[in-house]
Amino acid sequence: MTEHIPIPQFRAFEAASRHLSFTRAAEELNVTPAAVSQQIRGLEEHYGVTLFERTTRSLALTALAKAVLPSVREGFASFRDVHNQLTAVTASDVLTVSIYLTLAEKWLIPRLERFRSDYPQIDIRIHATDELVDFTRDSIDVAVRYGTGNYPGLTVLPLITELAFPVCSPRVADAIRTPEDLRNQTLLHGEWRMERDVGANWRLWLRAAGLGDIDAGRGMRFNMESLLVQAAIDGLGVALMPESLVAGDISAGRLVRPFGDRHEIAPEFSAFIVYPPSAENNPNVVAFRDWALGEVRP
Q: Going by C-beta distance under 8 Å and a sequence separation of 6 or more, which residues neighbour residue 185?
């Protein structure tokens, strides 16, 4: 017959060994200090060993306790991993994705039908925002962030690394033959990009095209990329955009590249899949991650 393993007593031992205090261990376990002391004494009697050296003012681990403690902690870590996996499997099949607003509109949503076809059991929730989110506080499972990829403490996977180029409506393109023609065109700006050179902005593009004498700040400004794209579609001027945000509009003929595949720049910002390391145990997050990466593979 298999011998009973006193798991609650081991739990009290692990907590008390971390705090070296029955009182603080009791606060963590939501029991009384006397209950913790009784659990540990029961563990010592069960195995016929001494785990703590007790004095009136201090508590210290014995050599035996120090030797077995790493295995005890590893065991509880394994229990937590199993708990997380089982919780993820039995939880509601709802996946909440936080994503950069325009990337949601222009890249993710046009592809969601394929995701739904591959994973009909997952109900996806889109949390569209340009702000960084707190995964726990905001109940976010996985995020697609547009930035440099420096997100400490999180799993970060490159999703889209791309080039940026000018786009405009077909009507506006009729008046453009060379980059020099932009002198007579309205430049459309993403307002946040004008402040930093990590994103694609007209200052960087004009410099690369040898047109540094053109005023890169003139034109119309928009605080949202989706408005910037729509302004270009409506013929208000020429926008400088990453491919992922305009590929669908180019395919549909709403936008064109007046210089073809020439005069592209590579912005520092890219799109990344981001999630807490613990989400590796969430099959819905894994499914979305693998599907999204598959969407961008050649």
A: 168, 172, 175, 176, 237, 238
Could you tell me the CA-to-CA distances from 204 to 106, 114, 134, 271, 275 in Å, in that order?
A: 24, 36, 32, 20, 32
Cα 289 to Cα 137: distance, rounded to the nearest angstrom: 21
Q: Taking residues 36-52, report their average pLDDT.
A: 92
Cβ neighbors of 195 (< 8 A, separation 6 or more) are none
29 close to 15: Cβ distance less than 8 angstroms: yes
| Cα angle 52-58-59, degrees, rounded to a multiple of 5 | 20
The sheet carrying 270-275 orders its strands as 123-128, 94-99, 142-147, 270-275, 155-160
Number of Cβ within a 10 Å radius of residue 67:
10
Six-digit token pair at 151?
A: 């997100």
CA dist., res. 23 & res. 35, Å (int): 10
pLDDT in tens, 235-265: 999 999 988 889 899 999 999 999 988 888 8
Please name every residue paired with 125 in a beta bridge, in sequence order, or none if there are none. 96
Q: Which of residues 240 and 270 earns the better pLDDT score?
A: 240
Supply the pLDDT for residue 54: 87
Residues 192, 134: Cα–Cα separation, whole Å? 22
Map residue 219 onto helix, strand or coil: coil
Is 182 within 8 Å of 214 (Cβ atoms)?
yes
